[in-house]
Design brief:
By secondary structure, the chain is α/β, with parallel strands linked by helices. Helices cover 43% and strands 13% of the residues. A seven-stranded mixed beta sheet has the order 5-2-1-6-7-8-11. α7 runs parallel beside α10, α7 crosses α12 and α8 crosses α11. The longest helix has 18 residues. The radius of gyration is 19 Å and the shape is globular. The mean pLDDT is 94.
C-alpha cells in the first residue's frame, strides 16, 4: 500500500514526512515552487529533533502517478481547491481507490463521495507550518498530531483500522472512529477563529468577537440537528498532543489561514469555515452577522494581497455595527 499525499503543505507535508520515516511507501503531490523544491532538493522536515531532508517522490498531479486500487490518497489541500483536485484524481484513479479527507471544514467528504465510494473523514489536530517552498515544520512532540478517521458518512472498517495503525506507528495519535463527523464539526467550531488571525495578525486578540461567532455556530448546528462532540470530550482528546512553544525552530507561527495569507496565496478557506455557519444560518433562519463579516473580510484581505494585520478589531466592530 502506498500513501499519496495530495497537497503536501503544512498538514500533508508533516504526514508524508512521518509516514516516510516510519518506512511507508509515500508519494507527494504539490505545485509551483514547492513542487520544484521537492523535486530538486527533497522535503526539508523540521521537528523537535532538528531538520532532515527526505527524498520523497513528488508529482505535480495524480496523472503523473501510476495510481492503483491499493493506494490511499490523503487529501490535504485547502477546501477551496478540493473540487479541482478531485476532478484530476477522478480522471487518473481507479474508482475503488481510498480517499481520506485530512482537511478542515465538513464539505470535502461530500465532494469526494460524488466521485469515489470509499471516502473517509479525518479529524486533523496537527500544528504544522509551511511558509517556504520545499519546507514543512511539525510543531508538536513527541506526538506529532491527532488524526482519527472513519468512513463517511459514518462507520469504520478494516481499512480505517489499518490507516490508523500506520499513522500511530508514524508518531501520530490515531484511532478508527465509528462516527467521525461530530468530531469534525467540533473542530469546525474551533476553526472559526482562523479568519480573525488572518485579518488581525498575531498580536491582536478578538475573544469577544469569537464568542459571538461560536454562539451563532451553535445556534445553527442546533437548528440543523447537527451533532458535534462536546467541549469536555474534545479537550480530553486534545490532551494527546503536546505543542512546541518558546523559541524553538519547530514552534508554530500562526494558524493555517494566517499562513495562507503570509505566503501570498490570494485565497483563504473562510468560505468553508465561517461560510459553513453562514450557509446553515441562511438555510434555517438563524442570523450569523459575525461569521458573515469574518468570511467577507478574510476573503477581501486574501484577494487584496495585503496579508495578516490589514484590519484592526475596531475596524471589524465598526463594520459589524454599520459605522
Amino acid at each position: 500500500m502506498r500513501y499519496v499525499i495530495y497537497g503536501a503543505g503544512a498538514i500533508g507535508g508533516v504526514m508524508g514526512a512521518r509516514l516516510h520515516l516510519s518506512g511507508q511507501d509515500v508519494a507527494l503531490i504539490a505545485r509551483g515552487a514547492h513542487l520544484e523544491a521537492l523535486r530538486q532538493d527533497g522535503l526539508a522536515f523540521t521537528s523537535a529533533d532538528g531538520t532532515q531532508t527526505l527524498p520523497i517522490p513528488a508529482a505535480g498531479s495524480p496523472a503523473e502517478l501510476d495510481l492503483t486500487a491499493e493506494d490511499v490518497v490523503i487529501l490535504a489541500m485547502k477546501s477551496q481547491d478540493t473540487v479541482a483536485a478531485l476532478d484530476a484524481l477522478f480522471a487518473a484513479a481507479p474508482p475503488s481507490i481510498t480517499v481520506v479527507c485530512a482537511q478542515n471544514g465538513v464539505v470535502n467528504e461530500r465532494m469526494a463521495l460524488r466521485r469515489f465510494p470509499n471516502v473517509y473523514g479525518q479529524l486533523v489536530i496537527l500544528p504544522g507550518t509551511h511558509l517556504e517552498p520545499g519546507s514543512v515544520i511539525a510543531s508538536a512532540s513527541p506526538t506529532y498530531g491527532i488524526l482519527d478517521l472513519g468512513r463517511y458518512p459514518r462507520g469504520s472498517d478494516a481499512c480505517a483500522e489499518r490507516i490508523a495503525g500506520d499513522l500511530t506507528e508514524a508518531g501520530f495519535s490515531a484511532v478508527a472512529s465509528e462516527d467521525i463527523m461530530p468530531w469534525k464539526y467540533g473542530k469546525l467550531l474551533r476553526n472559526l477563529a482562523n479568519s480573525t488571525q488572518a485579518i488581525l495578525g498575531l498580536e491582536e486578540k478578538a475573544e469577544g468577537l469569537m464568542a459571538r461567532a461560536h454562539e451563532e455556530a451553535l445556534a445553527c448546528f442546533a437548528a440543523a440537528g447537527i451533532d458535534l462532540v462536546g467541549d469536555d470530550e474534545f479537550r480530553e482528546r486534545f490532551q494527546a498532543l503536546n505543542r512546541i512553544f518558546s523559541n524553538s525552530p519547530a514552534a508554530r507561527a500562526g494558524n493555517s489561514s494566517w499562513q495562507s495569507l503570509t505566503r501570498g496565496s490570494g485565497t483563504i478557506e473562510a468560505a468553508y469555515l465561517n461560510g459553513e455557519v453562514v450557509l446553515l444560518g441562511r438555510l434555517h433562519g438563524v442570523p450569523t452577522p459575525v461569521n458573515a463579516l469574518l468570511q467577507e473580510v478574510a476573503t477581501e484581505v486574501a484577494a487584496s494581497g495585503k496579508g495578516p494585520g490589514a484590519y484592526t478589531l475596531a475596524d471589524l466592530e465598526a463594520r459589524l455595527s454599520g459605522d
